[in-house]
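User: Let's play a game. I give you a shape written as tokens, and you guess the letters that built it. Ready? Here's round one.
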């Protein structure tokens, strides 16, 4: 019924609006599968083959392939949230549908870019780290913080790094345009999470400034480690406060600092 149960990636894109509309109408929570269906190899990142540099078409195609996997999971997570939180505010669900459809367009752009370079979806394995970062036991605030403020927020940082690296590659202005457009539109996706995180906190009489570090501390052990430099400008545009940005700076430093062994 929902897009994450369909294997073919192109069919998922075509069915996403239908899936969102069906999920929007649910009155009771539905459980999502442990893993989303895939028509290509799904492997832990440590088992993925080495990557080539962006100076080669293969390196650029592999980058878009990795980005496509992330956009696919973001699209599926949008439907998953609609499915698992049918009692979420109507305004939140309406905006989430639009964000999810936008993620589907990003996925289509990536797939078309891969083909333009002479490669195809499935030439490399993919992972499900974003999907596995969430849990059926999450509260709605947990889910917003994990998906839209941590995972997608980290995507802003990574996207900015990709854009700068691609500026040194020649002959593939189309690929650079794809990454730039996605990163620009992701600012709105992350801001969606920032606004609704604070709105739902207010409706529950929770201080978001006090809740943010406490909730992040409780969730961080199961989140994928992100070590890209934090882009303060993009984070600010996406609704992060200075205090929240500093929290992520400290978290990044913790990830970069090896733990001493006793």
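Assistant: Ready! My guess for every position:
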């Amino acid at each position: 019924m929902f897009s994450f149960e369909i294997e073919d990636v192109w069919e998922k894109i075509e069915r996403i609006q239908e899936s969102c509309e069906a999920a929007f109408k649910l009155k009771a929570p539905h459980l999502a599968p442990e893993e989303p269906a895939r028509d290509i190899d799904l492997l832990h990142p440590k088992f993925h083959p080495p990557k080539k540099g962006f100076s080669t078409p293969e390196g650029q195609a592999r980058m878009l392939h990795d980005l496509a996997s992330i956009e696919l999971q973001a699209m599926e997570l949008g439907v998953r949230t609609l499915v698992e939180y049918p009692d979420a505010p109507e305004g939140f669900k309406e905006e989430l549908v639009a964000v999810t459809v936008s993620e589907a367009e990003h996925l289509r752009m990536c797939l078309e870019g891969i083909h333009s370079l002479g490669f195809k979806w499935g030439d490399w394995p993919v992972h499900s780290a974003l999907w596995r970062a969430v849990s059926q036991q999450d509260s709605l605030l947990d889910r917003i913080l994990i998906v839209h403020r941590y995972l997608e927020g980290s995507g802003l940082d990574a996207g900015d790094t990709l854009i700068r690296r691609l500026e040194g590659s020649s002959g593939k202005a189309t690929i650079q345009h794809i990454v730039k457009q996605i990163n620009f539109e992701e600012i709105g996706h992350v801001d969606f999470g920032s606004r609704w995180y604070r709105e739902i906190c207010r409706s529950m009489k929770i201080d978001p400034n006090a809740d943010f570090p406490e909730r992040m501390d409780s969730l961080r052990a199961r989140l994928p480690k992100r070590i890209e430099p934090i882009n303060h400008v993009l984070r600010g545009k996406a609704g992060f406060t200075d205090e929240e940005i500093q929290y992520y700076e400290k978290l990044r430093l913790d990830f970069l600092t090896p733990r001493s062994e006793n």
